[in-house]
Amino acid sequence: MSAARHLTMVGPLPSADDALGASGARPRTTMADIVRFRSFMSSGAPAGDDPVGSALQRAGRGDEAAFAEFYRHMSATVHGIVLKVLRDPAMSEEVTQEVFVELWRLAPRFDPERGSAHGWAATVAHRRAVDRVRSEQSARNREEVESRRADRPHDEVVDEVVDRLDRSRVVEALGQLTEAQREAVALAYYGGHTYREVAVLLGVPEGTIKTRIRDGLIKLRDLMGVAS
């Protein structure tokens, strides 16, 4: 049976107001709550003496009406456990539905000799709620990391150091070119002039300028160890 059909069959979840109480205050876990929870966990009463366990066993054999009965017994308890962990009514209703879908799927595995159906359902509910808290926290952590990366300012200091380093290497390499090569390369690549403009400025044929610049760049590449 599909999860949607289960949730339609068993009826609506208890409202957030029901879970919180008439005053709207969030329930506090008392010592009595802890004692009852431990009692649920340690109880090994036969399913025949336990209507919740009996309903769960019948549900495990595919009895949908029995699962509806189990839901009526356990819906408020499961929702209350989830709400105490999540502190979010809307999310708690969603997780409570997930718990009952999981309980239907796992019902055939229920063994009354190992504990009560009440305690077993409570354990599944608490585990689901804790898993959701961890999942939500992990998602928030990932968002924070991505946000920090996006907001990180561009490292201008590093760029400036690298730029200065490259410039110093270029200046050093330019010093090893011939005067004619250095003059032509400087005008073309630092002055922003075209081959023709460099030729006019230096009073040298354009073809000669192209050769000087080409030879000068090849030598610069070799001196700076740049792969071709």
Regions with pLDDT < 50 over 5+ consecutive residues?
Answer: 13-27, 40-48
Number of helices: 11
Profile the largest sheet. none
User: What name goes with the CATH superfamily of the largest domain?
Assistant: RNA polymerase sigma factor, region 2, helix turn helix motif
**What portion of the residues fall into strands of 2 or more residues?**
under 5%
CATH topology of the largest domain: Rna Polymerase Sigma Factor, Chain: A
Large-scale geometry: rod-shaped
Give the arrangement of secondary structure elements.
Layout: H1 3-10, H2 16-20, H3 31-42, H4 51-60, H5 64-86, H6 89-106, H7 117-151, H8 156-174, H9 179-190, H10 195-202, H11 206-224
Overview of this protein structure:
The protein is mainly alpha-helical and 228 residues long. The chain has two domains: 3-151, Rna Polymerase Sigma Factor, Chain: A; 156-224, Arc Repressor Mutant, subunit A (Orthogonal Bundle), CATH 1.10.10. It is 74% helix and 0% strand. It has helices at 3-10, 16-20, 31-42, 51-60, 64-86, 89-106, 117-151, 156-174, 179-190, 195-202, 206-224. Helix 5 runs antiparallel to helix 6 (89-106), helix 6 (89-106) crosses helix 7 (117-151) and helix 10 packs across helix 11. The longest helix is centred in the middle third of the chain and has 35 residues, at 117-151. The protein is rod-shaped and about 110 Å long. Residues 13-27 and 40-48 have low confidence and may be disordered.
